[in-house]
Every structure is written in structure tokens, then in C-alpha cells.
Design a protein that fits this description.
The complex is a heterodimer of chains A (114) and B (114).
Chain A lengths: L2 E3 L4 E5 L4 E3 L2 E3 L6 E6 L5 E7 L5 E3 L5 E5 L4 E6 L8 E8 L7 E3 L3 E6 L1
Parallel strand pairs in A: 2-12
Antiparallel strand pairs in A: 1-4, 3-9, 5-6, 5-10, 7-8, 8-9, 10-11, 10-12
Chain B lengths: L3 E4 L2 E4 L4 E8 L5 E7 L6 E7 L2 E5 L6 E7 L2 E7 L7 E8 L9 E2 L3 E5 L1
The chains are: A mainly beta (114), B mainly beta (114).
Chain lengths: 114, 114
């Protein structure tokens, strides 16, 4: 069955430190992968997506993610975190043969220390 | 962002009430979605509409009734809900309902069932 796992429920980093949020997926075909961010009281905003081609994708707000097929991973990174990055982050995969269905991970809540 | 709007933003209702959630997208998309976001759980897809036809119904209880009168509007009619239905209900839209498309989310309706 298709699934997405975000192993870290909550992460705290210091402002200015680097960040990596983990995402692993289980999928039988070429995946379409997404990272979304949700600030408190808001909907989800797309950070970046991977469909094909270069496995390192750049997104908004200085985020990037790397697709590693051998590890079934699509980890999100940022070299220097800002206090405004505190939010919840969701990894998702486009479900195969199910139209526009997205399968989401449980989310990782990011806190940023001053 | 105002691409996808949802009203109301907050709703409190008793178990015997009938209410409706409204979603409107201004992006010219042809597919719309309802998701349920409960605390500590991944987002759950409830319904998908593509060109105003329902293409996905994810075993949602009949007390939730969707309606898509045109490609810009989506409703979720609620009746005789249970306390466990309290959650954030998110609406999204995409170009055509394919798995590789980006879904754009509204801010959500926070529902509390007493």
C-alpha cells in the first residue's frame, strides 16, 4: 500500500541553524512528491515538488529537497532557519491511478529557538 | 493568498444541527477536494470532484454530503454530526484532478461539534 512516513513528530532548532526534515514513502511506481507548510490557523502552502528530472529541487523560502530513489526518501532541507519558519510541514505523494489523490504524512512540527 | 477561500472560518454546532461549509476557488481549476485534518493524524481525503462530477468518495459517513454546483464552488453539508467529527476541514483545488498537479488549499474551517 502507498504510504508516507515522517519519522519526526516535533523538531526544535536554533535560529540560523540548518534544518533537515525527513520523509520516506512507499510507492510502487515513479512517485510525484510534494512538501507543504502549514502555519497556525492557515491552510497548506506548497513549498516544492518533484515530478522527474533533477533530483534536487528548489522551492520557495530557501527550501530544497532531494529525491533519493534508493532510499525512498524525499528530505526537506534549509541551510539557515528563520524564526518565521516555525510551522508544521507535510510531505505528500500523488497516489497512483487515483486521480488527484494525495497521501500525506503525519506532519513534522518545527519550533525555532531564538 | 486568496486563490481558495472558505467560509465560515470557525463553526460550532450541536449534534442535531444542519450546517454547510463553503469553498470557492478563483484559479480557473476543474478539480476540487475536501480534506479532514484531525489532531495528530494525517490529512484524510474525503471527496474529489473533477468537472463537477464526484470521482472519489473515501468511505465518508453519510452525515457528510458534498455538493459541487460548478467548477468554482464546493459545499460540504453537515447533519447530525458526532463530537469526533470536530476537526479542521480543508478545501483544495487543482487544474484537472491528476496526481502530478499541485493542489492549492484554502485556510480551512475549524469545526467544533458539541
Amino acid at each position: 500500500a502507498q504510504s508516507v512516513t515522517q519519522p519526526d513528530i516535533h523538531i526544535t532548532v536554533s535560529e540560523g541553524a540548518s534544518l533537515e526534515l525527513r520523509c520516506n514513502y512507499s510507492y510502487g511506481a515513479t512517485p510525484y512528491l510534494f512538501w507543504y507548510v502549514q502555519s497556525p490557523g492557515q491552510g497548506l502552502q506548497l513549498l516544492l515538488k518533484y515530478f522527474s528530472g533533477d533530483t534536487l529541487v528548489q522551492g520557495i523560502k530557501g527550501f530544497e529537497a532531494e529525491f533519493k530513489r534508493s532510499q525512498s526518501s524525499f528530505n526537506l532541507r534549509k541551510p539557515s532557519v528563520h524564526w518565521s519558519d516555525a510551522a508544521e510541514y507535510f510531505c505528500a505523494v500523488g497516489a497512483y491511478n487515483q486521480g488527484g489523490k494525495l497521501i500525506f504524512g503525519q506532519g513534522t512540527e518545527l519550533s525555532v529557538k531564538p | 493568498e486568496t486563490g481558495v477561500t472558505q467560509t465560515p472560518r470557525h463553526l460550532v454546532m450541536g449534534m442535531t444541527n444542519k450546517k454547510s461549509l463553503k469553498c470557492e476557488q478563483h484559479l480557473g481549476h476543474n478539480a476540487m477536494y475536501w480534506y479532514k485534518q484531525s489532531a495528530k493524524k494525517p490529512l484524510e481525503l474525503m471527496f474529489v470532484y473533477s468537472l463537477e462530477e464526484r470521482v472519489e468518495n473515501n468511505s465518508v459517513p453519510s452525515r457528510f454530503s458534498p455538493e459541487c454546483p460548478n467548477s468554482s464552488h464546493l459545499f460540504l453539508h453537515l447533519h447530525t454530526l458526532q463530537p469526533e467529527d470536530s476537526a479542521l476541514y480543508l478545501c483544495a483545488s487543482s487544474q484537472g484532478g491528476q496526481r502530478q498537479e499541485t493542489q492549492y488549499f484554502g485556510p480551512g474551517t475549524r469545526l467544533l461539534v458539541l
